[in-house]
Amino acid sequence: MSSAALYYTGCEDDHYQPHFLDSCFLCHRTLGHNSDIFMYRGNTPFCSQECRQEQIEIDEANERKLKLSSSKKSTSVRKTTDSAKQSDTKKVARTGTVAVS
């Protein structure tokens, strides 16, 4: 047997990536193997109902901010479009046939 085979354990600690259920998403407290895990939005684990509720409130606040900022943008776009329509009505356009040689 080669010396490399003697030391191979099947697990390389240098490249260990934690499992998503190892710790609470919010407070990073280690989740016990025999303790309740509170899930939110699919695969986001929390150690308690309080941590999960706090994350829900954070997400709702962020969504409200996004809606407000997007509604402000759409209002300014609407104002720009309205002013462009008003300026277009003041323009004179000639109609007819143009011959180019």
TrEMBL record:
PROSITE patterns according to UniProt: ZF_FLZ
Domain FLZ-type: 19-63
Region described as Disordered: spans on this chain: 62-101
Keywords: Metal-binding, Zinc, Zinc-finger
Metal-binding as UniProt keyword: yes
Origin superkingdom: Eukaryota
Keyword Repeat among record annotations: no
Biased amino acid composition, Low complexity: 68-78
An example Gene Ontology molecular-function term: zinc ion binding
Pfam family membership, one: zf-FLZ
ZnF region ranges: FLZ-type: 19-63
Family annotation (InterPro entries): FLZ1/2/3, Zf-FLZ_dom
Composition bias type Basic and acidic residues, residue spans: 79-91
PANTHER family: FCS-LIKE ZINC FINGER 1, FCS-LIKE ZINC FINGER 1-RELATED
Family per similarity comment: Belongs to the FLZ family.
Record protein name field: FLZ-type domain-containing protein
